[in-house]
Write a structure and sequence with these properties.
35% of the residues lie in helices and 16% in strands. It has 289 residues and is of the alpha/beta class. Strands 1, 2, 3, 4, 5, 6, 7, 8 and 9 form a 9-stranded mixed sheet that branches. It is globular and about 55 Å long. The relative contact order is 0.14.
Length: 289
């Protein structure tokens, strides 16, 4: 693996390349992106594509990539510009892309803004909460997580986030009538760590979950777009947002193994099924539905 730093006017973007450039297998590079997950989150999945040239990167302000613009917010449009710059720096033409969570939102913006950059996009569980039928309630639930985080810190905020993202079905009165989630129920400490700027728990990434993809621009692009959902996520928020995103784009979701982090092994707590996930991703990239 080779690591590079791409210096732009507003950020220094760090990206990793596994395999040769230009590629030697006749396939485009496979770019894997997330948000707020950085390149480290794709180590298990990238390792399962030894035959491919795989690139990963840290979004600006996350992991090893630093910002120069003085901002702390995250927007799909700005991140799309960064991904475009990384693709240009790879110098191997358009890429195939696997994008997960907020990275899937960024990827949809890339296809709309830079339609020649991506041949096939697998957009895995984009958390576009305003697209679901209960969008206003989902926005209210998102705000409650932020409020808990601001009042009590990271672990209370994370417990509230886990409770929100594991809730099955629409956010009803029953959801909002629950007592605040207890961090100890999820094996987390209770003390306030003092942080208030976490991109997942604060409002810094609300532009990501509140984004509305440009369906017309995506339809006009030459990119083949596949919206993917984990089989364990179907009834929870990111499963429902995946279905809503697919419907916006005039398609149906493609089911993958496991859950929202199903391509990870055990290094982030809740292990997925990276072997099965990689097999499915390879099938989809090869043209299977």
């Amino acid at each position: 693996m080779e690591t590079y730093t791409l210096e732009t006017a507003d950020a220094d973007l760090v990206y990793d390349v596994r395999g040769p450039l230009p590629t030697t297998d006749g396939r485009p590079p496979l770019l894997m992106i997330g948000q707020p997950m950085d390149a480290a989150g794709f180590a298990a999945l990238a390792a399962r594509f030894p035959e491919r040239t795989v690139a990963t990167y840290d979004p600006r302000g996350l992991g090893r990539s630093t910002r120069k613009d003085g901002r702390t917010d995250h927007t799909p449009q700005t991140q799309a510009d960064d991904v475009h710059a990384v693709i240009e720096a790879l110098g191997a033409g358009p890429v195939e892309m696997f994008a997960s969570s907020g990275g899937a939102v960024t990827a949809l913006a890339v296809v709309a803004q830079y339609p020649a950059d991506v041949t096939t996009l697998v957009a895995h569980e984009p958390p576009l909460i305003t697209l679901t039928p209960d969008g206003p309630a989902a926005v209210r639930a998102r705000a409650a997580v932020r409020d808990t985080y601001e009042k009590r810190g990271r672990w209370a905020g994370m417990a509230a986030f886990v409770a929100m993202t594991s809730w099955e079905g629409e956010f009803t009165d029953a959801y909002f009538a629950q007592p605040e989630a207890d961090p100890t129920a999820f094996g987390m400490p209770t003390e306030d760590d003092g942080s208030r700027d976490d991109p997942l728990l604060s409002d810094r990434s609300w532009a990501v979950s509140g984004y509305r993809p440009d369906a017309d621009a995506i339809a006009a692009a030459p990119t083949r777009v596949v919206v993917a959902v984990g089989e364990e996520s179907v009834d929870v928020q990111t499963g429902r947002t995946s279905v809503a995103t697919a419907e916006l784009l005039g398609q149906r979701v493609t089911v993958f193994p496991s859950h929202h982090g199903g391509f990870c092994d055990g290094e982030f707590g809740y292990p997925g099924k990276p072997d099965e996930f990689a097999h499915r991703l390879r099938e989809v990239l090869d043209g299977a539905s």
